[in-house]
């Protein structure tokens, strides 16, 4: 299978997880970080499109909540809020650690039978660079292979074509 019909968010989630793994994070940590990165990108795009509007009351409540000691993980050029938990590093979304099992279900649902092959192609691409080089190139690589949305289709949540052969050629 060389082509997968899928929208961009799960592709970015999977790629960010692969990059985080290559940078030295553990399997469950990378799932949490990948999902948080895709979520932050979706929020940014939603704000640009006018789909998401800031909600001052919700923001005030979030700022008043107590959290564990938070730090930032740089992934694909974006700072991801994270905390250490008993199970390892977890990205934080809406003041809670992102649970890897939910991310795994999400990816299985979105990719279906193409999940393993997609991960393999992305792992091959990521392993072709030293971690420091990959960290600096990861976002531009994503731009080169990300899902192509057909002309004239509104891109928010729209499925397009992910070309696994293109990912393999980049490696």
Describe what you observe in this structure.
It is a single chain. With 171 residues, the chain is α+β, with helices and mostly antiparallel strands. It has one domain (3-170). It has helices at 8-22, 27-49, 56-64, 100-111, 115-127, 131-145, 164-170, and strands at 3-6, 70-75, 78-85, 88-93, 96-97, 160-163. It has a four-stranded antiparallel β-sheet with strand order 2-3-4-5. Strand 4 and strand 5 form a beta hairpin. Helix 1 packs antiparallel against helix 6 (131-145), helix 2 (27-49) packs across helix 4 (100-111) and helix 5 runs parallel beside helix 7. The longest helix is centred in the first third of the chain and has 23 residues, at 27-49. The protein is globular and about 45 Å long. The two termini are 18 Å apart.
Number of strands: 6
Number of helices: 7
Order of helices and strands: EHHHEEEEHHHEH
Strand order of the largest sheet: 2-3-4-5
The total tally of domains equals: 1
As residue ranges, the low-confidence spans are: 46-67
Question: What structural class results from the helix and strand content?
Answer: alpha+beta
Give the fraction of residues assigned to helices. 40-55%
Sheet with the most strands, sense and barrel status: 4 strands, antiparallel
Report the radius of gyration as a whole number of Å. Answer: 16 Å
Strand content: 15-25%
